[in-house]
Design a protein that fits this description.
There is one protein chain. This protein is α/β, with parallel strands linked by helices. It has two domains: 117 residues, Roll (2,3-Dihydroxybiphenyl 1,2-Dioxygenase, domain 1); 159 residues, 2,3-Dihydroxybiphenyl 1,2-Dioxygenase, domain 1 (Roll), CATH 3.10.180.10. Helices cover 19% and strands 36% of the residues. The protein contains six helices and 17 strands. It has a nine-stranded mixed sheet with strand order 14-15-16-13-9-12-11-10-17, sandwiched between helices. The radius of gyration is 18 Å and the shape is globular. The N and C termini lie far apart (39 Å). InterPro entries: Glyas_Bleomycin-R_OHBP_Dase, Glyas_Fos-R_dOase_dom, MMCE/EMCE_epimerase, VOC_core. This is Catechol-2,3-dioxygenase.
Length: 313
């Protein structure tokens, strides 16, 4: 039996953009998240079915950027242990372990990953009063996973495996052109993080879990009727066995509605490589528009302007 990582789960993702008002309205009024707090222009939004204080934070900035990715830890001791391991390995620490001054509080620290993204790890964050999402209710239950683009994906994957304890679940390839996406887990969900090959470091997409297939399809249809630009879907992936419908938010980031992400055994699961040139490997249902240059272009996103620059909050 192999010990699980000190990181327990994905907490939230923070993004910044010039047009905060339109972005806030998108996530609140169309995507289905609930505003829970704001602090000096930073807005925190929760998923109604999740005990996490918030799953997305939005901040106004002159440039579009990823502010941070936040993960949970089980204890203060684990936070300190991880911080010391990273420091010894030469990882650049942004802030030392201390009280967290955002909704829910807690105790944590921040550091840069190998590509310059800001990563936060925290524990003892107060849980939020959440509720059961009802039948036909097409709003997110929780934050499902986060996918990043890297110009050096093999290096990025190796960094997360070595330093944060993630394990490879599966990967995707394009025939004999080689692998281009790697799915990483820190718990029994098939993936909480994935790394995709791209021309530059950027956000690939942010994914949100819905209650079930009916709610996922209702949410997909609701966004289409509202005129939200669809990128890809609806369909069902082979790797992770989850459904997918990808859309643009108002800053041009890709966001996904999904459901039924696969649970795997931490010790017994063995990774497979799925060739996306085989139609049923990229979409088991055969209902989605093809994965083509249009889809790839928009998922490559704009280069992240926040690398190795800590956000103000």
């Amino acid at each position: 039996m192999t010990a699980k990582p000190l990181i327990t789960h994905l907490r939230h993702v923070g993004i910044a953009m010039p047009d905060l008002d339109r972005q806030l309205a998108f996530y609140r009024d169309l995507w289905g998240l609930t505003p829970v707090a704001d602090d000096t222009g930073v807005h925190f939004l929760a998923a109604e079915g999740s005990p996490e204080q918030y799953v997305v934070r939005l901040r106004k900035d002159d440039q579009k950027r990823l502010d941070l990715v936040s993960f949970g830890a089980a204890s203060v001791e684990d936070v300190h242990t991880l911080c010391e391991r990273l420091r010894t390995a030469g990882v650049r620490i942004i802030s030392e372990p201390d009280d967290v001054d955002t909704p829910g509080g807690g105790y944590g620290f921040r550091f840069f990953d190998c590509d310059g993204r800001v990563i936060e790890v925290s524990t003892d964050v107060a849980t939020r009063a959440f509720r059961r999402i009802e039948e036909h209710e097409s709003i997110p239950v929780r934050l499902s996973h986060f996918v990043i683009n890297s110009a050096n994906p093999e290096q990025t994957v190796a960094w997360y495996v070595e330093h944060l304890g993630f394990r490879l679940s599966d990967s995707l390839c394009m025939g004999d052109r080689g692998e281009f996406m790697w799915f990483l887990r820190c718990n029994d969900w098939h993936h909480s993080l994935a790394v995709s090959r791209g021309p530059h470091h950027a956000v690939n997409h942010i994914s949100f879990e819905l209650r079930g297939l009916d709610e996922y399809m209702r949410g997909t249809g609701r966004l289409l009727r509202a005129g939200v630009q669809k990128i890809w879907g609806p369909g069902r992936h082979k790797a992770g066995d989850n459904t997918y419908s990808y859309f643009f938010d108002k800053a041009g980031n890709t966001v996904e509605y999904t459901t039924e992400l696969q649970l795997v055994d931490w010790d017994e699961w063995h990774p497979s490589v799925f060739d996306v040139f085989k139609p049923d490997f990229i979409d088991q249902w055969g209902t989605s528009n093809p994965m083509n240059e249009f889809v790839s272009k928009w998922m490559h996103n704009d280069p992240d302007r926040g690398l190795f620059v800590a956000p103000p909050l």
